[in-house]
Automatic annotation (TrEMBL):
Residues 84-281, 318-496 form the SIS domain. GO terms for biological process: carbohydrate derivative metabolic process; glucose homeostasis; response to fructose. It comes from Alosa alosa. It comes from the Eukaryota. Transmembrane segments: none annotated. Gene3D superfamilies: 1.10.8.1080, 3.40.50.12620, Glucose-6-phosphate isomerase like protein, domain 1. Residues 1-25 are annotated as: Disordered. This is SIS domain-containing protein.
């Protein structure tokens, strides 16, 4: 563990990104976190430690009363949470003809899906009809795989929302875009602003409004920032709400699935929970109630990272599996199974991973998922998510290089867990467990015996009679942190991260396109246009760009990116060495570790 001096220097580093000039003009969600600069060279223990510190920033209070950035605990943020929870309560008290829509792209849409289902289930317990609906850009396919292109379409976003509103008189719309950037969500918010008699919009994101994305959106007259500003104007009259505390840069720059996803879950669950408690149990919604709720989530952070050693051990195992061309499998139950599926699906766009590298399965598959479009398994192997699929297609191929992680709670049928674990243990000794139990509810047998002591178990103490419901939300968050740590750590150990950048990202929408050029600029010092040319040459596999290629829309470029591999590393080599695209590709093929190839190229280029 770090000493006092190291802690002090880390605290200073943590604040560094707040200085006005730090990586200006990047918004906070795209900056690199000073705490994780060397994460690519860290071992499992250190990786987990850095993630712990970065995640802790989500709950950091105001450093000074007049701090530039609003935080989760800032007065103004807490007040908006109170106001939004109050609106939720109103809808739940008069649910007829009303709807609460949660919407987003990628991870933000997946969290929207998870929470819409969770809170509809809660309504069911109170004999109420479902009130929640979710929207994810790209439809249900995007719950399990990365569908980045629809994120760029404001008209698609507006259209899907319009369809969801049919037959409703009041719609409370919560649009999530961690970076205040997704055109899909901007289109939906704009639709709300044009129909305020029926819709009240809420925007959730983690940048100050003046740094919301301001570049023109293809075929649309507004920018995300303009929409945000219109909402802020309406906030005074409570006709729109903007919830945008800053939670610090991601541990892996721009990877909003991590802190962005976490903060989304915390904020949304807090307002929905408080709204439900007020509507069903007449508990008052006030600042204190919001603060207590967020503090409970902060305790989950402490509880989870108490298990640093155990978590580091799983990270190490998963990393070894990926290094040896093996796989990591998550086998989960109920919503923790969904957390596993979500975490696994995010590795493809983030690390340029193959979908087979890390995969998630859940007990009951689609019958448990409860997604709108039902069983998608006929769409291909990426969509086969049932434990039964695992048993029939993966289990026969499992070997010692694979890591299998069971994720369950004391509320799941332990007989099922034991049976499947027995089957997997016949194939590999590398079987791990992440599990949760709580006071008075312990596992019926010593699970260490079943998992040969490779168990990461957290024993929780419920804060009050509050409910098993809140406990499950906390288990989910805890599991999210652990799985994000495992998949991120394993890819770092595999060499898929350079410094704290996802160097091998997929360039499949306009945000990722700009991010990729930003990475090229950062490491080679090139001009934007030079970086863009190099990127396009790689995307089109062309030594010379034709006029058509050079002048095509970004959407055309990102379409080309769907079939390209190692795009950013190749462009880096091209820029740094002046070699051809095919030479750069050949050079990278010789080096199995992307990070090392990039590092060698950048350091040798400097001599
Ligand atoms: O486009 C890819 C992506 O960065 C996903 O990884 C992310 O979950 C999604 O965009 C949504 O980003 P945001 O919440 O900032 O709109």
């Amino acid at each position: 563990m770090p000493g006092d001096q190291e802690k002090a220097s880390r605290a200073r580093a943590a604040q560094e990104w707040e200085f006005p000039g730090y990586e200006s003009p990047l918004p906070v969600t795209e900056k690199s976190n000073p705490l994780s600069l060397d994460i690519d060279r860290a071992g499992p223990q250190q990786i987990v430690h850095v993630l712990q510190e970065c995640d802790a920033e989500v709950f950091q209070g105001d450093l000074q009363p007049d701090a530039e950035f609003k935080r989760l605990y800032s007065e103004s943020v807490i007040q908006i949470l109170v106001d939004v929870a109050d609106r939720v309560k109103t809808i739940l008290r008069e649910p007829d003809d009303s709807l609460i829509v949660l919407s987003g792209c990628g991870t933000s849409g997946r969290i929207a899906f998870l929470l819409a289902n969770t809170f509809n289930r809660m309504l069911g317990w109170h004999q109420q009809k479902p009130v929640y609906s979710y929207i994810i850009a790209g439809g249900d396919k995007a719950l399990l795989t990365s569908q980045e292109a629809p994120e760029d379409s404001p008209s698609l976003g507006a259209q899907v929302l319009k369809e969801a509103c049919v037959g409703r008189k009041h719609v409370f719309f919560i649009g999530i875009s961690c970076g205040l950037s997704a055109p899909f969500v901007a289109g939906q918010l704009d639709f709300c602003l044009n129909n305020l008699d029926m819709l009240t919009p809420v925007l959730i994101g983690f940048n100050p409004a003046h740094t919301a994305r301001n570049e023109p959106i293809q075929g649309w007259p507004h920018t995300f920032r303009q929409v945000t500003e219109r909402m802020l104007d309406l906030q005074r009259a409570q006709r729109a709400f903007v919830l945008n505390p800053v939670v610090g840069p991601e541990a892996i720059s721009g990877s909003s699935r991590m802190k962005g996803g976490t903060a989304t879950k915390v904020l949304l669950e807090s307002v929905l929970l408080l709204g439900h408690r007020a509507a069903h149990s007449h508990v008052e919604i006030n600042r204190q109630a919001v603060l207590d709720c967020i503090r409970d989530y902060e305790k989950v952070h402490e509880m989870t990272y108490c298990k640093t050693n155990e978590l580091a051990s799983v990270v190490g195992k998963a990393g070894t599996s990926l290094q040896k061309e093996g796989h990591v499998y998550y086998l989960g139950w109920k919503t923790l199974g969904i957390m596993g599926i979500i975490d696994a699906s995010e590795c493809v766009p983030t690390f340029g991973a193959d979908f087979q590298d890390i995969r998630g399965f859940m007990y009951g598959g689609f019958s448990e998922m409860n997604n709108k479009e039902g069983n998608l398994s006929s769409l291909g192997p990426q969509f086969c998510i049932d434990h039964k699929d695992f048993v029939s297609t993966i289990l026969p191929l499992i070997g010692e290089n694979d890591t299998v992680i069971f994720i369950f709670t004391v509320d799941d049928d332990f007989g099922d867990v034991e049976k499947l674990a027995g089957q997997v243990k016949k194939k590999t000794s590398n079987v791990q467990a992440i599990c949760h139990e709580y006071k008075g509810h312990c596992f019926p047998v010593n699970i260490n015996n079943i998992f040969d002591s490779k168990v990461l178990k957290i024993s929780w103490t419920p804060s009050d009679a509050d409910d098993d419901f809140f406990m499950r939300l906390q288990w989910e968050l805890s599991t999210k942190w652990m799985l994000n740590g495992i998949s991120t750590g394993a890819h770092i150990l595999k060499g898929k991260v350079y410094k704290n950048y996802m160097i091998d990202l997929k360039v499949t929408n306009s945000k990722l396109y700009r991010r990729a050029i930003g990475i090229l600029q950062r490491f080679t010092g090139c001009q934007w246009t030079q970086g863009e040319r190099a990127l396009l040459r790689v995307l089109y596999g062309a030594e010379e760009l034709t006029k058509e290629m050079a002048t095509a829309d970004v959407s055309r470029h990102t379409q080309a990116a769907t079939t390209s591999d190692r795009v950013v590393p190749t462009a880096l080599v091209v820029l740094q060495t002046g070699c051809s695209v095919s030479q750069a590709q050949a050079q990278l093929r010789e080096c199995s570790v992307v990070r090392d190839a990039v590092e060698t190229c950048l350091t040798s280029g400097r001599h």
